[in-house]
């Protein structure tokens, strides 16, 4: 199916799908979103050292969370970030870094359960050991009437993957996994990277979470805005 047609089908389906943040995170009692800006112009973490020092970054997030205690700190779709310095983000045959974020981040504590918002089939369940990779991550396949799409859940704990088998089915409300600690989630401050994909392309046991700015048009079609599901006015205004 043509990518643009697939994109439109997903967008129209999502428009009528009744989604709530409690579908993802039913145990934390939060239904609002507070946008967190981590673009190259952000004022939260200005340097690589600040970004990669968990106590500093978590302290900044805690300050924001204290002022927005009913909301989940969220953001990131198509955000241009200057903090990706690991070799994992090197582009092939280029000196450029992949720095356009293709998903949405939910900044929540390690151990927070993540639930399936829709029935799906597990097509990937891997624990990446690479520095600044996903750590534990799961990809679900969702089949809707006349089209298919995928969702990715990154930075889960290692034990989250033990119960999953490729081809297994999850029902809406089933636990996908729990958010991992810094030591097991790719060396990140705990959060969920959530991404929608209309195709897995040729990837096996992996999928890019960031892309080159020069390829943004392509990746925007392959990875539609998760806010089609979230329907957040806060994120719509960005």
Task: Characterise this structure.
This protein is α+β, with helices and mostly antiparallel strands and 238 residues long. It has one domain (3-232): Glucose Permease (Domain IIA) (Distorted Sandwich), CATH 2.70.70.10. The chain contains 7 helices and 12 strands. The protein has helices at residues 3-15, 21-24, 48-51, 54-67, 216-222, 227-230, 233-236; strands spanning 32-35, 71-75, 100-101, 104-107, 113-115, 120-127, 136-144, 147-156, 169-170, 175-178, 192-197, 210-211. An 8-stranded mixed beta sheet has the order 1-2-4-11-8-7-6-9. A two-stranded antiparallel ribbon has the order 3-12. It has a two-stranded antiparallel ribbon with strand order 5-10. A hairpin with an 8-residue loop joins strand 6 and strand 7. The longest helix is centred in the N-terminal third of the chain and has 14 residues, at 54-67. The two termini are 30 Å apart.
